[in-house]
Design goal:
By secondary structure, this protein is α/β, with parallel strands linked by helices. About 50% of the residues lie in helices and about 10% in strands. It has 40 helices and 17 strands. The strands form four sheets. A seven-stranded mixed sheet has the order 5-4-13-14-15-12-16, with helices on both faces. A five-stranded parallel sheet has the order 7-2-1-11-17. The protein has a three-stranded antiparallel sheet with strand order 8-9-10. The chain starts with 18 loop residues before the first helix and ends with a helix.
Length: about 1100
C-alpha cells in the first residue's frame, strides 16, 4: 500500500483573510504562544523580516550523536525554530532520541510533530529501534502527556503528523493511538484533506479500532471528497477498507471523485484503489469498468506488486472483464520473478477465481511456483500453500509434480495450518485426484488430535467429501466428524444440514445417532428448504433409514407443489388482481402464461418475433424433472427421443465411465421398452410448441417488443411501453426475455454484468438420411480429450444432435457465430483423429444445421439486490435466463425456467389468498424471488464448475463409483472393458454396446463399494449432487464465518428475547390471576 504523503499541507486561516494576512496572523499566534521570537515566527510562515537591526547570523556546527545540533541565542539551548530544524535534520534514530532527551522540557507541538515525522523516516527498514526501546518509550510517554493536555497549542495538523509518523515508525503503542484518537476528535474540524487522509491511513495501518473516530472521519472526508487529490483518495479508500469500516455515503462520494480523477492516478494508486473497493465490498460497476479501461492502456507500467493487487481486486469484486483478463494473462510472465510468495499465490488465486480458462497461463504459474520451491520455500507459509492448491483445483489444472512438492512442503509445516487452510488443501488434492497418502494421513492425524472442535458445517462436509474421495474416511475420522455435527447441529443453517446429510449418506457413513440429530434440526427449519434441498434430504434420510423425517419431507414437498396448503386454487378469486404482462415468449415466458392462466390470472405475453416460426429457437434439450411440466398440464411423453445409457469416452474411444437405466438393478427390464428413459429428450421448438398450445388464444402478442417500463410509487402496478409506442398497463411485469434481458437491464442492478466463461459452443443436427449415428441411438455419449468436449444425444427418433465446446477468446467466439464455414473447419481440425463416428459426423453436418455462440453467465443475484428495501413494492420480477443465466453443461436452463414459472404462479396465488388481490403481489414477490434464487444458485454454480471440469484433464479421470442402484464395482468393470478392448467401436455390433458391456464386464464385477469414492458419471435416482467444488479461499471463508457468527448470535439473541418476553408474560399472567383470586376472596 502506498504511504500517505510525507509533508502535510499548511493549515488554512479564516476564510475572509487574504494570504498575507493569514501568514501574519499565524506568526502573531506563534509569538504569543512563546514558541518563537517575532523574527523566527515571520521566517517560519514565509514573511520577510521586519526592517530593524538584527544580530549577525552564524552557521551552527553539525550536531554530534547525543547532543544538540547548534546553539541558540539563550543559555537554555537553541531557539524553538532552530530546535525544530535540528530535529528535522537529524541523521539517525539515536540523534532524534538524543535531541528529545536533551530538550524534553522545551518541546512544543511543532517539535512533537517534527520528532514523529523524522522518526518515521529513520525507522523504515531499520532494526536499531529495538536497541533504543527505553528512549522510544520516553518519547511515547511524553507525547501521550502532551497530546492529552487540553492547554497545549497542538492542532489537527500536528496530530495528523504524529499519528502518521507513529504508524510509519513501526513501533505502535495502543495508549498513544488512543490518546491521539481522543485529541483528533476535538480538532478534526481544523484538518484539511491531506491531514484527514493521513489520519485515516495511520489508524488503519496501526489496526487501531475506533468506530467513533472513523465515523467522524467518514463525515469529514465525505464533505471534503472533492478536495482530495489522487494519492489522498487512494489512502482514504484503503484506510476505510483495511479498517473494515463500511460507510456507503463516503464510498459513494469516493467513487464519484476517483472516477473523475482517474487519469491522475499512477499504476500503484490505481491498483491500491481497486484493491480497497474490492476489499470493502463496495463494487461500482461503472468505476470498475473505467479502471479496467485505464489499466488496459497502461498495463506496461505496472510493477509486480501493483499487477498482483489489481488482478486480485477484480477477482475479489467478481468483475470478470474477459478482455482485461486476457490482456493481463499475456503480461503475467514478466512479473512472475518479481513477486513474493504471497503476491504470486494471490495472482494465481485471482485468475482461478475469475474462471479464466488458460492452460498455458496455469502451466507458467506451476513452473514458477515449482522453481521457487526448489530454490527454498522459506517465504511460502501455510496460507500460500493452501491458496495455491485451492487455485489450481478451482481452475481444474492438474500438475502432479507441483502437487507432490506442495504435499511434501505441507507435511513439514502442517502445525502452522489453520483449520481453513487444512480443509482447503485436502479439498484441492481430492478435487484433482491427487490422493497423496502421506499428506492425507498427516492431515487426518492433525484433525483427530486438535482440530475437530474448530470445524464448522461446511468444513465438516468438505473434509468428509475429500477423505471419502481419497478412500481415507475410516471409522475413527467419521466418528469424530459425526460427533462434531451432533454438538453443533443446532447452529446449522438449512444449507449446512443439506450438505452434511447428503455428504455422509453418499459416503455410506450413516448411523442412527447422527441422523437422528440431523432430523431434529431439519424439522425445526423445514420451511427454509428449497425443493431441490428437500429432494436431497429425502434421499439422504431414506438411505439412513429415518422414515419419520422422510414422511415429513414428502409432505413438505407436496405442500411446495401446491398440495396440502389448506385451500384449493379454485376457491381463490384472482380476477381483481389485474393483468400480468410477460416479456418474452420463449419456453419460460410461455410456461409462465400457462401456469398463471391455470390459476385464473389474466396474462399478456409480449414476443418480438413476428410468428412462432420466425426464427430457429435452439436445438434439443433434456427435460430432467417433470414436476413443472406436469403442473402445467402439458404432455410431452410422445415427443421423447429416449435414451437408456450414457457413456463417456476418451478421444480414442476408450470408456471412461457409464451409467443409465440399462445398468440399474431395478431398471434393467426397462432397457428395451419404448420411452423408458427417465429424462425426456425433445427439440426445443417442439417443447415450446407444446407449451404454447396450452396458452389461451390471443394471449401472445407477436411483433411486440418491450422498450421500457415505469413503476409508480403510489400506484400498485406497472406501465409498459413497446417499441412502436404502444402503452400497456398491468399489475405485474415478468421479465422472461433471456440472457440479454431488456427488463433486467432497466432495473439497473448494482454489479450486474455478463461473464464470458471462455468457451465457444457449437450445435449441430444430423438426420439419419444423411448419416446414421449408431453410437447415439437410444444413447447419450460424450467424448473428451482434456480440452475439447463433444456431447451427442437423440434429437428425434430419426436424428442426432451434437454439441461441441472448446476454449477460445471471446473475440474469436463472436467471429465464429458469423462464419459457419470457418467454424466447421476449426471443429473438424480439432476432432480429426477422434474415434468414429465423430470426424465423419461433423463433416456430414450441413452448414445450415449448425451454429456457434460464445458462452456467458452472470454473477449470482442476491434477493436483496434484485429487490432492494426501497423497491420492496416494485411490481417487476424476473424468471429464467433473465434472472439466472447459466452455461449449458448441466442441461438445466429450460428446466429452471419452467420451475420458475410454476413457482411464480403458486406464490402469487398464496399471496392473494393471505393478503387479498391488492396487497397479495407485494407479499408474494419477495418470497418467490428468494425461493427462485436459492434454488437456481446452486445450479448456476454447478454448471459453471462443470464447464471447467469438462474442458480440463479432470474430464479424463476414470469414474470411481457406479450409480446408486447398481451392484457392480465401476473401477474393476472399466479395467475389464479396457483389457478386452471394448469401447465406442462396439456401437455397430449387432448385440448392442450396452449388452456387450453388461455381459463382458458388469455381470462379472461384484459390488465392492468400500474402497470406492464419488461418482463423476452416474444417474441421479433421487436428488441432485451437492456442489462442493466452489470451496471458499481462506479469506472468503473468514468473511463468511464472521457473517455466520453474527447471524447465529442474532438468532440466539432473538431467541433469548422471545424467551424473556414469554417468561415475563407468563409471570404477569400468573400475578394477574393471583390478584384476581385474592380479590374474589375479599
Amino acid at each position: 500500500m502506498a504511504d500517505a504523503a510525507e509533508t502535510p499541507a499548511k493549515a488554512t486561516g479564516k476564510k475572509k483573510l487574504g494570504k498575507k494576512e493569514r501568514m501574519k496572523l499565524r506568526a502573531r499566534e506563534l509569538v504569543e504562544s512563546g514558541a518563537m521570537t517575532e523574527d523566527e515566527a515571520r521566517a517560519h510562515v514565509g514573511l520577510n523580516p521586519l526592517p530593524k537591526a538584527a544580530a549577525p547570523k552564524t552557521k551552527a556546527p553539525k550536531a554530534r550523536m547525543g547532543g544538540p545540533r547548534g546553539q541558540g541565542s539563550s543559555a537554555g539551548g537553541p531557539s524553538p525554530a532552530l530546535l525544530t530544524a535540528n530535529i528535522r535534520n537529524a541523521s539517525s534514530l539515536s540523534e532524534v532520541y538524543s535531541i528529545r532527551d536533551t530538550h524534553a522540557g522545551r518541546l512544543n507541538h511543532i517539535h512533537f510533530s517534527a520528532l514523529w515525522t523524522t522518526l518515521s523516516i529513520h525507522s523504515m527498514g531499520s532494526g536499531s529501534k529495538d536497541t533504543m526501546k527505553e528512549a522510544h518509550e520516553r518519547l511515547v510517554a511524553q507525547t501521550i502527556e502532551f497530546v492529552g493536555d487540553t492547554r497545549s497549542k497542538i492542532g489537527g495538523r500536528e496530530l495528523a503528523n504524529i499519528a502518521h509518523g507513529a504508524a510509519k515508525s513501526g513501533t505502535v503503542d495502543e495508549h498513544l493511538m488512543t490518546s491521539l484518537s481522543k485529541a483528533i476528535e476535538r480538532h478534526l474540524g481544523q484538518c484539511n484533506s491531506q491531514e484527514l487522509a493521513n489520519i485515516a491511513w495511520a489508524f488503519a495501518k496501526t489496526d487501531h479500532k475506533d468506530e467513533r473516530l472513523f465515523s467522524a472521519l467518514a463525515r469529514m472526508a465525505e464533505r471534503q471528497a472533492e478536495r482530495f487529490n489522487a494519492q489522498e483518495l487512494t489512502n482514504v479508500t484503503w484506510a476505510f477498507a483495511t479498517a473494515g469500516y463500511s460507510d456507503d455515503a463516503l464510498f459513494k462520494a469516493l467513487v464519484r471523485c476517483v472516477e473523475k480523477r482517474l487519469s491522475e492516478f499512477n499504476t500503484q494508486g490505481l491498483s491500491n484503489t481497486a484493491w480497497a473497493f474490492a476489499k470493502a465490498g463496495y463494487v461500482n460497476v461503472t468505476l470498475f469498468r473505467a479502471m479496467s479501461e485505464t489499466a488496459q492502456r497502461r498495463v506496461d507500467d505496472f510493477n509486480g506488486q501493483d499487477f498482483s493487487n489489481f488482478v486480485w481486486a477484480f477477482a475479489k469484486a467478481s468483475q470478470y472483464d474477459a478482455k482485461l483478463f486476457t490482456i493481463l494473462a499475456k503480461n503475467v510472465n514478466r512479473h512472475l520473478n518479481s513477486l513474493n510468495a504471497q503476491g504470486l499465490t494471490n495472482t494465481v488465486w485471482a485468475f482461478a477465481k475469475a474462471g479464466h480458462l488458460d492452460t498455458e497461463l496455469f502451466s507458467s504459474f506451476s513452473e514458477a511456483i515449482e522453481q521457487r520451491l526448489r530454490m527454498g520455500a522459506s517465504d511460502f507459509n501455510s496460507q500460500d500453500i493452501a491458496n495455491t492448491a485451492w487455485a489450481f483445483a478451482k481452475a481444474c489444472h492438474m500438475d502432479e509434480s507441483l502437487f507432490t512438492s506442495l504435499a511434501r512442503l505441507s507435511e513439514t509445516c502442517l502445525d502452522d495450518f489453520n483449520t481453513q487452510d487444512l480443509v482447503n488443501t485436502t479439498w484441492a488434492f481430492a478435487k484433482l485426484g491427487q490422493y497423496d497418502g502421506a499428506l492425507f494421513f498427516a492431515a487426518r492425524k492433525s484433525i483427530l488430535h486438535k482440530r475437530v472442535d474448530d470445524l464448522d458445517a461446511p468444513n465438516i462436509a468438505n473434509i468428509a467429501w475429500a477423505f471419502d474421495k481419497a478412500s481415507q474416511l475410516d471409522e475413527q475420522l467419521f466418528g469424530a466428524l459425526a460427533s462434531a455435527v451432533e454438538r453443533q447441529v443446532d447452529d446449522f443453517s438449512a444449507q449446512d444440514l443439506v450438505n452434511v446429510a447428503w455428504t455422509f449418506a453418499n459416503a455410506d457413513q450413516v448411523n442412527d445417532k447422527l441422523f437422528v440429530a440431523l432430523a431434529g434440526a431439519v424439522k425445526r427449519l423445514l420451511d427454509e428448504f428449497s425443493d431441490e434441498e428437500l429432494d436431497n434430504l429425502e434421499w439422504a434420510f431414506t438411505k439412513a433409514g429415518q422414515q419419520s423425517i422422510v414422511k415429513n419431507l414428502k409432505r413438505k414437498r407436496k405442500g411446495a407443489d401446491g398440495a396440502g396448503s389448506g385451500y384449493s386454487d379454485r376457491d381463490i378469486d384472482v380476477s381483481k388482481c389485474g393483468r400480468i404482462i410477460v416479456a418474452g415468449g420463449g419456453i419460460g415466458g410461455a410456461a409462465a402464461a400457462v401456469a398463471l392462466q391455470r390459476k385464473g390470472f389474466d396474462v399478456t405475453v409480449l414476443e418480438a418475433d413476428e410468428s412462432f416460426d420466425a426464427r430457429a429457437q435452439g436445438y434439443g434439450l433434456t427435460v430432467q424433472a417433470q414436476d413443472a411440466i406436469q403442473a402445467m398440464g402439458v404432455d410431452i411423453s410422445q415427443d421423447d427421443a429416449p435414451s437408456t445409457s450414457h457413456y463417456t469416452f476418451s478421444e480414442k474411444g476408450e470408456i471412461i465411465g457409464f451409467f443409465g437405466e440399462a445398468f440399474g438393478s431395478k431398471s434393467k427390464d426397462r432397457r428395451e421398452t419404448q420411452n423408458s428413459g427417465r429424462f425426456i429428450h425433445i427439440p426445443r421448438q417442439v417443447l415450446r410448441s407444446r407449451i404454447i398450445q396450452a396458452v389461451q388464444p390471443g394471449t401472445i402478442q407477436w411483433s411486440s417488443k418491450l422498450k421500457s417500463f415505469a413503476c409508480e410509487n403510489d400506484v400498485k402496478g406497472v406501465s409498459v411501453t413497446l417499441m412502436d409506442g404502444t402503452k400497456l398497463q398491468g399489475a405485474l411485469l415478468v421479465g422472461s426475455d433471456g440472457i440479454f434481458s431488456t427488463v433486467r437491464r432497466q432495473l439497473e442492478l448494482p454489479g450486474d454484468r455478463l461473464n464470458y466463461v471462455g468457451l465457444c459452443v457449437v450445435l449441430g443436427i444430423v438426420d439419419e438420411k444423411i448419416m446414421r449415428v449408431h453410437l447415439a441411438e437410444r444413447r447419450i455419449f460424450e467424448t473428451v480429450d482434456g480440452v475439447t468436449r463433444l456431447y451427442a444425444m437423440p434429437f428425434t427418433t430419426s436424428s442426432t444432435m451434437w454439441q461441441l465446446s472448446f476454449p477460445c477468446s471471446e473475440e474469436t467466439a463472436r467471429m465464429y457465430t458469423k462464419d459457419a464455414a470457418s467454424l466447421k473447419k476449426e471443429i473438424t481440425r480439432r476432432c480429426a483423429k477422434w474415434h468414429d463416428p465423430i470426424p465423419k459426423m461433423l463433416m456430414k453436418t450441413p452448414l445450415d444445421c449448425m451454429s456457434g455462440y460464445p458462452v456467458y453467465d452472470r454473477e449470482l443475484l442476491e434477493p436483496g439486490i434484485l429487490r432492494p428495501e426501497n423497491e420492496v413494492h416494485r411490481r417487476v420480477t424476473l424468471i429464467g435466463d433473465a434472472a439466472h443465466p447459466m452455461t449449458p453443461f448441466k442441461a438445466q436452463g429450460a428446466n429452471q425456467a419452467m420451475s420458475d414459472a410454476v413457482l411464480l404462479a403458486e406464490s402469487l396465488v398464496e399471496g392473494v389468498h393471505k393478503h387479498g388481490p391488492v396487497d397479495g403481489f407485494d407479499f408474494a414477490l419477495p418470497l418467490f424471488e428468494q425461493k427462485m434464487l436459492m434454488r437456481s444458485s446452486r445450479v448456476v454454480i454447478g454448471s459453471r464448475e462443470k464447464a471447467k471440469e469438462m474442458h480440463s484433464a479432470l474430464a479424463l479421470q476414470l469414474a470411481r463409483r457406479s450409480q446408486r442402484e447398481a451392484e457392480f464395482d465401476m473401477q474393476k468393470t472399466i479395467s475389464v472393458l479396457r483389457e478386452k478392448g471394448i469401447g465406442a467401436q462396439n456401437a455397430t455390433d449387432s448385440r448392442g454396446l450396452d449388452a456387450i458391456v453388461e455381459s463382458e464386464a458388469v455381470s462379472h464385477s461384484p459390488s465392492d463399494q468400500t474402497a470406492l469414492s464419488y461418482a463423476e458419471h452416474r444417474i441421479e435416482s433421487r436428488g441432485q449432487r451437492v456442489v462442493f467444488e466452489d470451496a471458499d479461499s481462506v479469506e472468503e471463508a473468514d468473511d463468511k464465518n464472521q457473517k455466520k457468527r453474527k447471524e447465529i448470535k442474532g438468532k440466539k439473541a432473538k431467541k433469548e428475547k422471545k424467551e424473556k418476553k414469554e417468561k415475563k408474560e407468563k409471570k404477569e399472567k400468573k400475578e394477574k390471576k393471583e390478584k384476581k383470586e385474592k380479590k374474589m376472596k375479599l
